[in-house]
């Protein structure tokens, strides 16, 4: 058994699964969580890496699901928490089913905040730990046709900076990763394959995104935007009126046809 433990949520596919591979490469034992059976496949793919890997299939939109993950961790000190679980939702807000947009909020905001508090409390008591929160450049842009999702990412981006400041003198470091469109199952799951951004073939490789986030986490950076094009978009978001940003987002996210 390694002496280091990394907990990664949303680790069944995409950026989270890539984070799991990096952590295993760096010698961390792993507790991986997601709300689908693919989490077992992801864990099995890391066998033979000379680290212990445990998969937890839990609904991270709920306190109960997060408590299940916390029970699996038990009394083991968490050296790294990568709070990566997230859910998207496309199309016009007035057309969305309330249960669908509530699940986005419960996963991205409520469940994530609960888990962060529980693990951060133990890190602070121990005087060390690293936390990475997967936010998004979407949090910098009013998300027409992704209104709820972008709103949750705005929350996470802001929350990460605030938490970092509160924990500045505790030995616990907080980093927020802000990806742009990434080549993962996100757009299929969010029902956005009929949108320009969903059809775009120039999305970033999730392995590259995860490497960028890991490097920032190890350096103790406050934030990192992954990808040159996304860095430009993030910078422009601070200079462009929100009304114009919303119109630009419509061109990306409004369903075609």
UniProtKB/TrEMBL annotation:
PROSITE patterns to which the protein is assigned, alphabetical: ADH_SHORT (PS00061)
Domain of life: Bacteria
Keywords annotated in UniProt: Oxidoreductase
Start and end residues of each Ketoreductase domain: 4-184
Record bears the keyword Magnesium: no
InterPro entries, alphabetized: KR_dom, NAD(P)-bd_dom_sf, Sc_DH/Rdtase_CS, SDR_fam
Family statement drawn from the similarity comment of this UniProt entry: Belongs to the short-chain dehydrogenases/reductases (SDR) family.
Record PANTHER family: DEHYDROGENASE/REDUCTASE SDR FAMILY MEMBER 7B, SHORT-CHAIN DEHYDROGENASE-RELATED
Protein's name according to its UniProt entry: SDR family NAD(P)-dependent oxidoreductase
Organism: Stakelama saccharophila
Organism placement in taxonomy: Bacteria, Pseudomonadati, Pseudomonadota, Alphaproteobacteria, Sphingomonadales
